[in-house]
Amino acid sequence: MELLYRARAALCTLYCTVHERAEGGATSRASLHFSPLQVPVRRRRRRRRRRRRRRRRRRRRRRRVLVRRPRGPSPENTANQTHISELHWWLNGPKRKRKNSQCSLKSMSGYIPSYLEKDEPCVVCGDKATGYHYRCITCEGCKGFFRRTIQKNLHPSYSCKYDGCCIIDKITRNQCQLCRFKKCIAVGMAMDLVLDEAKRVAKRRLIEENREKRKKEEMVKTLQNRPEPTGTEWELIRLVTEAHRHTNAQGSHWKQKRKFLPEDIGQSPVAPTSDGDKVDLEAFSEFTKIITPAITRVVDFAKKLPMFSELPCEDQIILLKGCCMEIMSLRAAVRYDPESETLTLSGEMAVKREQLKNGGLGVVSDAIFDLGKSLAQFNLDDTEVALLQAVLLMSSDRSGLTCMEKIEKCQETYLLAFEHYINYRKHNIPHFWPKLLMKVTDLRMIGACHASRFLHMKVECPTELFPPLFLEVFEDQEV
């Protein structure tokens, strides 16, 4: 036919040429009664459309046939099954890619128990099995399908379009839910092992309780296995504790021997400082009376410590100037009384927050009171306070030191003995040691804040109000 159309077109062209030469003018195709090219083009287009539609229908029919088993036990079933397995590329080919279930992908890269053989198949669909689920070796996909079906009671609503004769494998398992569920039952998956909502919640709760119990047991075991002080460390701890007790005013009887500062003192600030706070000169004079004995006790404590006297005299002075306010703040903070909300300074004078603030310390008083509140929860004994003071004293990062390595080794010795003592005395309290070490940072911040505060007080207050030892210790400190 196509040849015929081309011949007719050639004749038409020839006719136009001859007619044009005969009349001596141009003749358009539109003037002709019949255009032989128009009809064939339209027909070809229609035929192409019909062929495309037929091909699409054929593909749809073929896909429907490939995913199901022929009805009835005919002898051709074996051949058809072989045909189906050979033509699975229709489902996984480049024109139509079907994704396997997420559970199947997860099972391929997930944990495989040691009791399974390598690449052992699922008894339901043939995918890679991940273990025993509901008494059968199955993959994650079939396990989840069976569990959801039982928990939500979905199996009564399942139906099969092909009389229950569907093949269930890795590719076709999502095509028919009824046949898949029947195969799960046929291979031996137990419905009674699927937990309902109440049992699931109880099981999760039990698992969480067991996990928490195991964590606590491991923590207690770890704490119990921590090293305790050696003989040398016990001797060091004893010397440090004695040094603290001999230089700590009033000892453990400070509550009975303390005297409260009168309430009218420290409530009327009169001398403003450059940082905005005000100083009550009467309260400041009361504090200066006890500051010199407090500094003297810190110096005596340092002299009694092992290894401190072996350091050069210049380093001893630098260490004492750097830690004096920190140790005095620690001694005041451990004597915080939550009932009266007071700190006992130097073991004899009980003051409130506003009195200490207006007496010259300003914002430093808030930091000391906050430290006292937090240390009250630790319930520190004399040995722990003494070792904490020794750690503060032996700080190798003070500027101007000449024997930094030696001082650092001394601090490490005290820290190790301190940690072993905490393991011995408070081994059943989790995270006690790191929490206590964080207080060293708080005390260092108090010392730095007091150095800045001292500069303002020195400018605003009369020099004759400052005791000589107070000026000597806190002058020329780093801010």
Automatic annotation (TrEMBL):
Pfam families: Hormone_recep, zf-C4. Residues 199-226 form a coiled coil. One of its GO terms (biological process) is thyroid hormone receptor signaling pathway. Gene3D superfamilies: Erythroid Transcription Factor GATA-1, subunit A, Retinoid X Receptor. The keyword Repeat does not apply. Residues 232-476 form the NR LBD domain. It comes from the Eukaryota. Residues 41-71 have a biased composition (Basic residues). CDD domains: NR_DBD_TR, NR_LBD_TR. Its main location: nucleus. It is found in: Nucleus. SUPFAM superfamilies: Glucocorticoid receptor-like (DNA-binding domain) (SSF57716), Nuclear receptor ligand-binding domain (SSF48508). Residues 119-196 form the Nuclear receptor domain. Residues 27-80 are annotated as: Disordered. SMART domains: HOLI, ZnF_C4. GO terms for cellular component: RNA polymerase II transcription regulator complex. This is Thyroid hormone receptor alpha-B isoform X1. It comes from Ictalurus punctatus (Channel catfish).
